[in-house]
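Q: I have 224 residues here and want to know how they pack in 3D. Can you give me a structure?
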Amino acid sequence: MKSLSVLVMGCLLSVAAVAAPGDRIAEKADRIAMELRYRGHELSQSQREQINKSLDSIRRVLDGDLEGPGGGGDSRYTCVSRDNDGRAPYTLAIREGINVTRLQITYDTLPGCEQAMNSIRYIGYKGLICTSRDNDGREPTLLAILNGGQAARISKTVMNKADCMETLRTLRPDRNNNIVMCVSRDADGRNPYVALNLNMNNGSVQTGTETFNNVADCKKFIGQ
């Protein structure tokens, strides 16, 4: 419980630090921190998990790492038939009233496109999405950076689909918007893996020197 209290105090003090004296946010943070100090031992495991999730959300807001515009995904994006014939394959598009502009990101099924769209991870004002390496809707998968109506595929971020989706869920950018992840060394979605640093500001990548037999060993190396 001590570690939870430290985390709570750290996040809440961060909120208070950006608020003017007497601000209601700072006052609320102080009250919650005080209550957790005295009632922490009464919390159930479920309550602790919910508090941790809430604190993670606060931390992401403070770091400028948002889940999406408005906090619930970007309603500008939609999935449409790539060839405008109502059939597969499907592509991500940006909505402009009753019209759409297609991005060069293809999925073999509509559910696959919608799953990727709903899993977009925002770092600042840019998004990260999983898409197929060969733009054919099939594995292996890589990451693409979304910036409004533009999509930039990051060729060195190849991995299998499950690892790509997990990467979006667990990545933690630093204050310079650098993201460390594990990718397939040979860009085929299979072992071995290497660590890679992606900078979301300019899209630059740097591959680590060490090779790992599997993704689990690589994630252990980078602390995930």
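Q: Anything worth noting?
A: The two ends are 22 Å apart (CA to CA). Residues 63-72 have pLDDT under 50 and may be disordered.
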